[in-house]
Every structure is written in C-alpha cells, then in structure tokens.
Amino acid sequence: MQENILQQITQKPMGYQQVTPDIMLLEFPFVNVCIIGDPKTNNGEWVLIGAGMAHTSKDIIQAAEARFGKGSQPKAIILTHGHFDHVGAIMELLNQWNVPVYAHELELPYLTGAMDYPPADPTVNDGLITKISPTFPNKSINLGNRVRPLPADGNVPSMPGWRWIHTPGHSPGHVALYRESDRTLIAGDAFTTLKQDYAESVLAKEKEVNGPPAYFTMDWQAAEKSVRTLKDLHPQIAVSSHGRPMEGKELNEQLTNLANNFASLAVPNYGKYIQ
Asked: Start and end of every Metallo-beta-lactamase domain (predicted)?
C-alpha cells in the first residue's frame, strides 16, 4: 500500500495552473515551481521561483518556452530556500541558462558548499513521507558565484512591485515574496496548503492551510513568528510550494487559525528539533 502511494506521487503527471495573469504554477507531484511574468507585458520577461526536484529541468524549460517562446530564459532564479526539492534541477537549468540565482544571505552557506542542512527528523509524526525523509538529501550544493544575496532593501530582482520577507524557521534564510498591489503571497514552505508529511494528502492535493513540512523544520519558534508575519499581511492569494493556491476568506480564516494555534496545529509533540 505504501509503495503504491509513493509510486503514484512519483509518476503523477505535472499540472499547470494560471493563478494570476503573470503567475503560472507548475504543479509537480512533490513540489511546486512558479513562473512569474506575463507574456503580453514587460517585453515578455520572466523569473523562475524555485528549481524543483532533480531531473525536472526539461519540464520547466518546456513550460517556459511554451509560454514565452523557444529559447526563452528567465531574468533570474529566486530561491525561497535551498532544500533538495527546491534546488534539485538548478544545476541542469544553469547549464542551459546564463542567469543569476538569488537567495537570502543566511541561506548562502547551503548553496555554496559551506554547510549542510541538519538531517530530516522521521520521528515528528507518523506520515509516510516523514518516515522516508531520512532518505532525502540534506547536503549543500555549490553554486559558486552564480548565487547572490537578495538585495538588503527588500526588493526582488527583476520582479518590480514585489518584496521579499525573511520568514525563518523551516530554514535559516527562508523567504516569502509579497506583492502589495494585489496582496499576492508566494509563501514557499513557511506554510503549506496540504499536509505535506502525509503521502495521501500530497496525492489528493487537499486544500488546507498547514504548518511547514515538519521533518525539515528546525526552529519552531521562528516558524511560528514567520506564520504570524504572513498572516498580518492579510493576503488575498497565497501560493505555497506544497499544495494548491488558496484565496480570499478561506485563506485568511485558515491562516489566522494556524497563526493563533500554531503550537497545537503545527508543532510536533516530540522530535529531536523540538525546543
């Protein structure tokens, strides 16, 4: 049964969702990737948010070229953080594209080979994905001088109107991206819109605001503060790296509930990173 569920997650085809005129969501089985840019405006320039799992570069390039034309490449790649499911295809993409990569300065050690992430904790709950999480890579990658720190002024390179917000907890340099004009939030893993630790939820793509993936979250106090920060933005639309977009009243009610009850709803009762 467990092997069958994992096989379905692995083999389930990628989907596409037009979230706003300039946000195309690539829904891979395990993690989402965002293409930001409207082909009809701004000279067709675009930015990639996240680099997905290993060996998905062909899918990402194909989706981008279908939207922006053959040979198109982004102005930049923005990383909310550097966990394996967000940088898996980045080396393949950088072999194809000569573009800069941006991340928070506290995330750079994990992207330049200087420091490894702590290993996953399989004891935080009984979810199938949690149980197999020790097999997930936690080693750093080395992007060398291809990766740069996000600007200190909060602007997001090649994404006018957006700002980055430091949302640590799931990782030290985790960031979310926010556009005030339409209150659109790209949350990364600061919170999810399904129960990422459970394979059944991932497969069903349930829409429900939850905390960050527990097996890789190392600082729960910081994670709670980050969720409260994002709740106070009152986003109209939220795109998480795990799960489908949510919006309006449903989003704000569930995000407020998570922020107000984070200890009981998100923080595991046990685990080696529980303070």
From this structure: 30-242
